[in-house]
Amino acid sequence: WFDETKSLGLTEADRDDLTAYLEAVGAADEPYEAFGSENTAFRLAFSELTTFASTLDTLIPQRDAEHILLLVDTVAADLAADAGTMSNLAARPDVYALAKGLEEVGAAVRDEDWAAAEASWSAFKSDANAIDERAF
Q1: What is the 3-state secondary structure (H, E, C) of 26-43?
Q2: What's the DSSP call for residue 5?
Q3: CA-CA distance, 134 to 122, in Å (whole number)?
Q4: Angle 92-110/65-83 helices, nearest 10 degrees?
Q5: Does 110 lie in the same domain as 64?
Q6: What is the pLDDT of residues 54-94, one digit of tens each?
Q7: DSSP string spanning 59-119?
Q8: Domain hosting residue 117, numbered range
Q9: Model's pTM, two decimal places?
Q10: Core-most of 55, 66, 91, 119, by most CB within 10 Å?
């Protein structure tokens, strides 16, 4: 279909490779990630955001304020927004507090208070681990 409708000029081997790729990633009618009561869209987003935030383990010691601020401003906002999709409403305030904790890292960096940034980051990691164990 792709070859014919897009005039790609694929060889038979190219078509076989494309077919194998599409079968591996899944069809639009059957999503790659199946969600349920424990494996939720929020849990996936939470995992991705906290993994992305772990870049601070490298950026804070390097005192890379520009990239730290870009990261915390983006991830904190996304984390707070994604909290609105949680099915566990009782844990929602904890996720908002976690986003606030990440904002505190940014505030400390803006003030060039690296000790406070490190302390806030350490608290964020501890809180994220605690939330991950009980929020879902």
Answers
A1: CCCCCCCCCCCCCCCHHH
A2: H
A3: 19
A4: 160
A5: yes
A6: 999 999 999 999 999 999 999 999 999 988 888 788 888 99
A7: HHHHT-HHHHHHHHHHHHHHHHHHHTT-S-GGGHHHHHHHHHHHHHHHHHHHTT-HHHHHH
A8: 41-135
A9: 0.71
A10: 91
